[in-house]
Amino acid sequence: AGDAKVAPAGFFQKNQWIVTGFFFFMWYFLNVIFNILNKKIYNYFPYPYFVSVIHLLVGVLYCLVSWSVGLPKRAPIDANLLKVLIPVALCHALGHVTSNVSFAAVAVSFTHTIKALEPFFNAAASQFILGQQIPLTLWLSLMPVVIGVSMASLTELSFNWLGFISAMISNISFTYRSIYSKKAMTAMDSTNLYAYISIIALFVCIPPAIIIEGPQLLKYGFSDAIAKVGMTKFISDLFWVGMFYHLYNQLATNTLERVAPLTHAVGNVLKRVFVIGFSIIVFGNKISTQTGIGTAIAIAGVAMYSVIKARIEEEKRQLKAK
Ligand code: 3PG
Fold first, then answer.
1. Rounded mean pLDDT of the chain?
2. Would you call the peptide bond into 72 cis, given omega within 30 degrees of 0 as the criterion?
3. Domain Sugar phosphate transporter, which positions (predicted)?
4. What would the 3-class secondary structure string for 182-250 be?
5. What is d(CA 309, CA 322) in angstroms, rounded to the nearest whole number?
6. Cα 70 from Cα 62, distance rounded (Å)
Protein backbone atom coordinates (compact mmCIF):
# COMPACT_ATOMS: atom_id res chain seq x y z
CA ALA A 1 0.00 0.00 0.00
CA GLY A 2 3.00 2.24 0.67
CA ASP A 3 3.79 2.19 -3.07
CA ALA A 4 0.35 3.35 -4.06
CA LYS A 5 0.49 6.46 -6.22
CA VAL A 6 -1.43 9.23 -4.54
CA ALA A 7 -2.53 12.28 -6.53
CA PRO A 8 -0.54 15.30 -5.32
CA ALA A 9 -2.42 18.02 -3.45
CA GLY A 10 -4.09 20.43 -5.85
CA PHE A 11 -4.16 17.81 -8.62
CA PHE A 12 -7.93 17.97 -8.88
CA GLN A 13 -8.03 21.79 -8.88
CA LYS A 14 -5.37 21.94 -11.60
CA ASN A 15 -7.25 19.43 -13.66
CA GLN A 16 -10.63 21.08 -13.33
CA TRP A 17 -10.81 21.43 -17.09
CA ILE A 18 -10.64 17.64 -17.44
CA VAL A 19 -13.58 17.36 -15.07
CA THR A 20 -15.50 20.10 -16.91
CA GLY A 21 -14.70 18.40 -20.23
CA PHE A 22 -16.05 15.18 -18.82
CA PHE A 23 -19.29 16.97 -17.81
CA PHE A 24 -19.71 18.29 -21.36
CA PHE A 25 -18.98 14.87 -22.85
CA MET A 26 -21.53 13.13 -20.60
CA TRP A 27 -24.13 15.84 -21.23
CA TYR A 28 -23.82 15.40 -25.03
CA PHE A 29 -23.64 11.62 -24.84
CA LEU A 30 -26.77 11.30 -22.70
CA ASN A 31 -28.57 13.88 -24.82
CA VAL A 32 -27.88 12.07 -28.12
CA ILE A 33 -29.12 8.77 -26.66
CA PHE A 34 -32.16 10.50 -25.15
CA ASN A 35 -33.10 12.10 -28.48
CA ILE A 36 -32.78 8.88 -30.44
CA LEU A 37 -34.68 6.69 -27.98
CA ASN A 38 -37.32 9.41 -27.53
CA LYS A 39 -38.02 9.61 -31.27
CA LYS A 40 -38.09 5.80 -31.55
CA ILE A 41 -40.85 5.83 -28.93
CA TYR A 42 -42.82 8.53 -30.78
CA ASN A 43 -42.63 6.43 -33.94
CA TYR A 44 -44.82 3.75 -32.30
CA PHE A 45 -46.43 5.76 -29.46
CA PRO A 46 -47.15 9.36 -30.58
CA TYR A 47 -48.25 10.82 -27.23
CA PRO A 48 -45.82 13.60 -26.30
CA TYR A 49 -47.80 14.97 -23.32
CA PHE A 50 -47.86 11.56 -21.65
CA VAL A 51 -44.21 10.79 -22.50
CA SER A 52 -43.20 14.21 -21.07
CA VAL A 53 -44.87 13.22 -17.79
CA ILE A 54 -42.98 9.91 -17.81
CA HIS A 55 -39.65 11.72 -18.39
CA LEU A 56 -40.26 13.84 -15.32
CA LEU A 57 -41.76 11.02 -13.24
CA VAL A 58 -38.73 8.74 -13.71
CA GLY A 59 -36.48 11.69 -12.85
CA VAL A 60 -38.45 12.49 -9.70
CA LEU A 61 -38.33 8.84 -8.54
CA TYR A 62 -34.58 8.88 -9.18
CA CYS A 63 -34.25 12.06 -7.07
CA LEU A 64 -36.33 10.62 -4.23
CA VAL A 65 -34.14 7.49 -4.13
CA SER A 66 -30.96 9.63 -4.30
CA TRP A 67 -32.17 11.85 -1.45
CA SER A 68 -33.17 8.84 0.66
CA VAL A 69 -29.56 7.56 0.58
CA GLY A 70 -28.18 11.07 1.07
CA LEU A 71 -26.59 11.44 -2.38
CA PRO A 72 -26.97 14.37 -2.43
CA LYS A 73 -28.30 15.46 0.93
CA ARG A 74 -31.69 17.11 0.39
CA ALA A 75 -31.48 20.90 0.65
CA PRO A 76 -34.23 22.32 2.87
CA ILE A 77 -37.01 24.24 1.18
CA ASP A 78 -39.37 26.93 2.45
CA ALA A 79 -42.17 29.12 1.09
CA ASN A 80 -39.77 31.85 -0.07
CA LEU A 81 -37.57 29.42 -1.98
CA LEU A 82 -40.65 27.82 -3.48
CA LYS A 83 -41.71 31.23 -4.80
CA VAL A 84 -38.35 31.53 -6.57
CA LEU A 85 -38.52 27.99 -7.99
CA ILE A 86 -42.12 27.97 -9.26
CA PRO A 87 -41.59 30.31 -12.26
CA VAL A 88 -38.47 28.33 -13.29
CA ALA A 89 -40.39 25.06 -13.04
CA LEU A 90 -43.38 26.43 -15.00
CA CYS A 91 -41.09 27.50 -17.85
CA HIS A 92 -39.24 24.20 -17.65
CA ALA A 93 -42.54 22.29 -17.91
CA LEU A 94 -43.87 24.34 -20.82
CA GLY A 95 -40.56 24.22 -22.72
CA HIS A 96 -40.31 20.50 -22.12
CA VAL A 97 -43.81 19.63 -23.32
CA THR A 98 -43.61 21.88 -26.37
CA SER A 99 -40.17 20.46 -27.33
CA ASN A 100 -41.69 17.01 -27.17
CA VAL A 101 -44.77 17.94 -29.16
CA SER A 102 -42.32 19.12 -31.81
CA PHE A 103 -40.13 15.99 -31.58
CA ALA A 104 -43.22 13.86 -32.13
CA ALA A 105 -44.46 16.00 -35.04
CA VAL A 106 -41.33 16.51 -37.19
CA ALA A 107 -37.79 15.11 -37.68
CA VAL A 108 -35.59 15.45 -34.56
CA SER A 109 -33.01 17.31 -36.67
CA PHE A 110 -35.61 19.94 -37.60
CA THR A 111 -36.73 20.57 -34.00
CA HIS A 112 -33.09 21.07 -32.99
CA THR A 113 -32.48 23.41 -35.93
CA ILE A 114 -35.32 25.62 -34.68
CA LYS A 115 -34.02 25.29 -31.14
CA ALA A 116 -30.68 26.65 -32.38
CA LEU A 117 -32.51 30.01 -32.39
CA GLU A 118 -32.51 30.02 -28.57
CA PRO A 119 -29.61 32.56 -28.32
CA PHE A 120 -31.61 34.90 -30.56
CA PHE A 121 -34.54 34.72 -28.16
CA ASN A 122 -32.14 35.25 -25.25
CA ALA A 123 -30.74 38.39 -26.87
CA ALA A 124 -34.26 39.69 -27.55
CA ALA A 125 -35.22 39.05 -23.93
CA SER A 126 -32.12 40.85 -22.62
CA GLN A 127 -32.97 43.90 -24.70
CA PHE A 128 -36.76 44.05 -24.51
CA ILE A 129 -37.51 42.44 -21.15
CA LEU A 130 -34.44 43.15 -19.05
CA GLY A 131 -33.79 46.49 -20.77
CA GLN A 132 -30.10 45.76 -21.44
CA GLN A 133 -28.71 47.47 -24.53
CA ILE A 134 -27.66 44.87 -27.13
CA PRO A 135 -25.09 46.38 -29.55
CA LEU A 136 -26.02 46.49 -33.23
CA THR A 137 -23.10 44.22 -34.20
CA LEU A 138 -24.52 41.53 -31.96
CA TRP A 139 -27.95 41.83 -33.53
CA LEU A 140 -26.40 41.71 -37.01
CA SER A 141 -24.43 38.61 -36.10
CA LEU A 142 -27.73 36.88 -35.36
CA MET A 143 -29.04 37.54 -38.86
CA PRO A 144 -27.39 34.44 -40.42
CA VAL A 145 -29.03 32.34 -37.70
CA VAL A 146 -32.48 33.61 -38.58
CA ILE A 147 -31.80 33.33 -42.33
CA GLY A 148 -30.35 29.81 -41.94
CA VAL A 149 -33.29 28.54 -39.89
CA SER A 150 -35.75 30.12 -42.36
CA MET A 151 -33.96 28.49 -45.32
CA ALA A 152 -33.90 25.15 -43.53
CA SER A 153 -37.60 25.37 -42.62
CA LEU A 154 -38.80 26.26 -46.11
CA THR A 155 -37.58 23.00 -47.63
CA GLU A 156 -37.71 20.72 -44.57
CA LEU A 157 -39.32 17.50 -45.79
CA SER A 158 -40.98 16.75 -42.44
CA PHE A 159 -42.20 20.35 -41.98
CA ASN A 160 -45.55 21.01 -40.35
CA TRP A 161 -46.76 24.02 -38.38
CA LEU A 162 -47.36 22.10 -35.16
CA GLY A 163 -43.69 21.02 -35.06
CA PHE A 164 -42.47 24.50 -35.98
CA ILE A 165 -44.65 26.55 -33.62
CA SER A 166 -44.21 24.27 -30.62
CA ALA A 167 -40.40 24.35 -31.00
CA MET A 168 -40.67 28.17 -31.14
CA ILE A 169 -42.75 28.21 -27.95
CA SER A 170 -40.11 26.03 -26.31
CA ASN A 171 -37.48 28.65 -27.27
CA ILE A 172 -39.52 31.35 -25.55
CA SER A 173 -40.15 29.18 -22.47
CA PHE A 174 -36.50 28.22 -22.06
CA THR A 175 -35.47 31.86 -22.45
CA TYR A 176 -37.76 32.79 -19.56
CA ARG A 177 -36.43 29.78 -17.67
CA SER A 178 -32.89 31.12 -17.95
CA ILE A 179 -34.01 34.59 -16.80
CA TYR A 180 -35.75 33.17 -13.71
CA SER A 181 -33.01 30.62 -12.94
CA LYS A 182 -30.40 33.33 -12.35
CA LYS A 183 -32.03 34.02 -8.98
CA ALA A 184 -32.70 30.35 -8.23
CA MET A 185 -29.10 29.29 -8.99
CA THR A 186 -27.86 31.10 -5.91
CA ALA A 187 -30.45 29.47 -3.64
CA MET A 188 -28.97 25.96 -3.56
CA ASP A 189 -26.64 23.56 -5.39
CA SER A 190 -27.55 22.61 -8.95
CA THR A 191 -28.46 18.97 -8.29
CA ASN A 192 -30.95 19.86 -5.55
CA LEU A 193 -32.26 22.73 -7.64
CA TYR A 194 -32.96 20.49 -10.62
CA ALA A 195 -34.63 17.91 -8.35
CA TYR A 196 -37.12 20.46 -6.96
CA ILE A 197 -37.76 21.90 -10.42
CA SER A 198 -38.54 18.40 -11.73
CA ILE A 199 -41.02 17.74 -8.92
CA ILE A 200 -42.93 20.98 -9.52
CA ALA A 201 -42.80 20.53 -13.32
CA LEU A 202 -44.19 17.01 -12.95
CA PHE A 203 -47.30 18.32 -11.17
CA VAL A 204 -47.70 20.99 -13.86
CA CYS A 205 -47.52 18.44 -16.70
CA ILE A 206 -49.96 15.84 -15.38
CA PRO A 207 -53.31 17.69 -15.90
CA PRO A 208 -52.77 18.62 -19.59
CA ALA A 209 -51.62 15.05 -20.33
CA ILE A 210 -54.82 13.64 -18.82
CA ILE A 211 -57.07 16.18 -20.53
CA ILE A 212 -55.43 16.15 -23.97
CA GLU A 213 -54.33 12.54 -24.35
CA GLY A 214 -56.11 10.59 -21.58
CA PRO A 215 -59.15 9.39 -23.57
CA GLN A 216 -57.15 8.23 -26.65
CA LEU A 217 -54.53 6.57 -24.46
CA LEU A 218 -57.14 4.47 -22.69
CA LYS A 219 -59.06 3.68 -25.88
CA TYR A 220 -56.18 2.57 -28.11
CA GLY A 221 -52.87 4.37 -27.27
CA PHE A 222 -51.48 1.88 -24.76
CA SER A 223 -52.92 -1.22 -26.46
CA ASP A 224 -51.54 -0.19 -29.88
CA ALA A 225 -48.05 0.39 -28.46
CA ILE A 226 -48.08 -2.95 -26.62
CA ALA A 227 -49.33 -4.75 -29.73
CA LYS A 228 -46.50 -3.20 -31.75
CA VAL A 229 -43.48 -3.73 -29.46
CA GLY A 230 -44.69 -5.83 -26.50
CA MET A 231 -45.24 -4.81 -22.89
CA THR A 232 -41.63 -5.36 -21.72
CA LYS A 233 -40.05 -3.22 -24.42
CA PHE A 234 -42.69 -0.52 -24.02
CA ILE A 235 -42.08 -0.21 -20.27
CA SER A 236 -38.30 -0.47 -20.52
CA ASP A 237 -38.19 2.17 -23.31
CA LEU A 238 -40.23 4.56 -21.13
CA PHE A 239 -38.04 3.90 -18.11
CA TRP A 240 -34.75 4.43 -19.97
CA VAL A 241 -35.89 7.51 -21.86
CA GLY A 242 -36.85 9.02 -18.48
CA MET A 243 -33.47 8.16 -16.98
CA PHE A 244 -31.57 9.64 -19.92
CA TYR A 245 -33.76 12.73 -19.86
CA HIS A 246 -33.17 13.31 -16.17
CA LEU A 247 -29.45 12.60 -16.26
CA TYR A 248 -28.70 14.80 -19.28
CA ASN A 249 -30.60 17.70 -17.74
CA GLN A 250 -28.91 17.21 -14.39
CA LEU A 251 -25.52 17.13 -16.14
CA ALA A 252 -26.49 20.27 -18.09
CA THR A 253 -27.36 22.04 -14.83
CA ASN A 254 -24.15 20.82 -13.16
CA THR A 255 -22.16 22.07 -16.18
CA LEU A 256 -23.83 25.49 -15.96
CA GLU A 257 -22.58 25.69 -12.37
CA ARG A 258 -18.99 25.17 -13.60
CA VAL A 259 -18.81 27.46 -16.65
CA ALA A 260 -19.94 30.94 -17.71
CA PRO A 261 -23.49 31.14 -19.11
CA LEU A 262 -22.10 32.06 -22.52
CA THR A 263 -19.87 28.97 -22.65
CA HIS A 264 -22.89 26.95 -21.63
CA ALA A 265 -25.03 28.47 -24.38
CA VAL A 266 -22.34 27.75 -27.00
CA GLY A 267 -22.03 24.22 -25.60
CA ASN A 268 -25.77 23.80 -25.98
CA VAL A 269 -25.63 24.73 -29.66
CA LEU A 270 -22.71 22.37 -30.24
CA LYS A 271 -24.80 19.67 -28.56
CA ARG A 272 -27.46 20.24 -31.23
CA VAL A 273 -24.86 19.69 -33.97
CA PHE A 274 -24.22 16.21 -32.56
CA VAL A 275 -27.91 15.45 -32.14
CA ILE A 276 -28.74 16.64 -35.67
CA GLY A 277 -25.88 14.56 -37.13
CA PHE A 278 -26.61 11.38 -35.19
CA SER A 279 -30.38 11.56 -35.67
CA ILE A 280 -30.00 11.94 -39.45
CA ILE A 281 -27.71 8.88 -39.51
CA VAL A 282 -29.83 6.71 -37.20
CA PHE A 283 -33.23 7.53 -38.72
CA GLY A 284 -31.92 7.83 -42.28
CA ASN A 285 -33.85 11.12 -42.66
CA LYS A 286 -33.56 12.66 -46.05
CA ILE A 287 -32.74 16.35 -45.93
CA SER A 288 -32.83 18.65 -48.94
CA THR A 289 -29.67 20.51 -49.97
CA GLN A 290 -31.25 23.84 -48.99
CA THR A 291 -32.17 22.50 -45.54
CA GLY A 292 -28.62 21.17 -45.09
CA ILE A 293 -27.08 24.52 -46.11
CA GLY A 294 -29.60 26.48 -44.00
CA THR A 295 -28.83 24.38 -40.92
CA ALA A 296 -25.08 24.82 -41.43
CA ILE A 297 -25.48 28.62 -41.84
CA ALA A 298 -27.62 28.81 -38.69
CA ILE A 299 -25.11 26.89 -36.61
CA ALA A 300 -22.14 28.83 -37.96
CA GLY A 301 -24.15 32.00 -37.17
CA VAL A 302 -24.62 30.97 -33.56
CA ALA A 303 -20.88 30.30 -33.28
CA MET A 304 -20.13 33.77 -34.71
CA TYR A 305 -22.65 35.41 -32.38
CA SER A 306 -21.02 33.70 -29.40
CA VAL A 307 -17.53 34.89 -30.34
CA ILE A 308 -18.75 38.50 -30.79
CA LYS A 309 -20.71 38.37 -27.53
CA ALA A 310 -17.69 36.99 -25.66
CA ARG A 311 -15.55 39.82 -27.07
CA ILE A 312 -18.07 42.49 -26.05
CA GLU A 313 -18.26 41.04 -22.54
CA GLU A 314 -14.46 40.96 -22.28
CA GLU A 315 -14.29 44.64 -23.35
CA LYS A 316 -16.90 45.53 -20.71
CA ARG A 317 -14.91 43.66 -18.09
CA GLN A 318 -11.69 45.46 -19.00
CA LEU A 319 -13.44 48.84 -18.94
CA LYS A 320 -14.76 48.09 -15.44
CA ALA A 321 -11.30 47.01 -14.27
CA LYS A 322 -9.76 50.35 -15.38
C1 3PG B 1 -36.92 18.37 -23.55
O2 3PG B 1 -37.41 17.26 -23.62
O3 3PG B 1 -37.17 19.19 -22.66
C4 3PG B 1 -36.00 18.72 -24.64
O5 3PG B 1 -35.13 17.65 -24.86
C6 3PG B 1 -35.26 19.97 -24.35
O7 3PG B 1 -34.31 20.10 -25.28
P8 3PG B 1 -32.95 20.84 -24.96
O9 3PG B 1 -32.56 20.45 -23.57
O10 3PG B 1 -32.05 20.28 -26.00
O11 3PG B 1 -33.25 22.31 -25.14
1. 90
2. yes
3. 19-306
4. HHHHCCCCHHHHHHHHHHHHHHHHHHHHHHHHHHHHHHHHHHHHHHHHCHHHHHHHHHHHHHHHHHHHH
5. 20
6. 12
Compute the distance between CA of residue 188 and CA of residue 220 in angstroms, rounded to an integer.
43
Ligand 1 atom, smallest distance to 112 CA:
10
Beta carbons within 8 Å of 224's beta carbon, 6+ residues apart: 44, 45
Q: What is the tens place of the pLDDT at every residue in 273-310?
A: 899 999 999 999 888 999 999 999 998 898 888 888 88
Residue bearing the CA closest to ligand 1, atom 2: 96
| Closest to 165 (Cα-Cα) out of 71, 110, 98, 80 | 98
Cα separation, 173 vs 209, whole angstroms = 18
pLDDT tens, residue by residue, 141-176: 889 989 999 999 999 999 999 999 999 999 999 999
Give the lowest-confidence range in 56-60, 91-95, 174-178, 314-318. 314-318
Q: Which of 57, 96, 194, 269 has most ligand 1 atoms within 8 Å of its beta carbon, as the pocket-test mutant?
A: 96
Measured in angstroms, how far is the CA atom of residue 99 from the centroid of ligand 1? 6
Is the model's pLDDT at 13 over the cut of 70? no
Which residue lies with its CA nearest to atom 9 of ligand 1?
Answer: 249
Rounded Cα distance, 5 and 177, in Å: 45
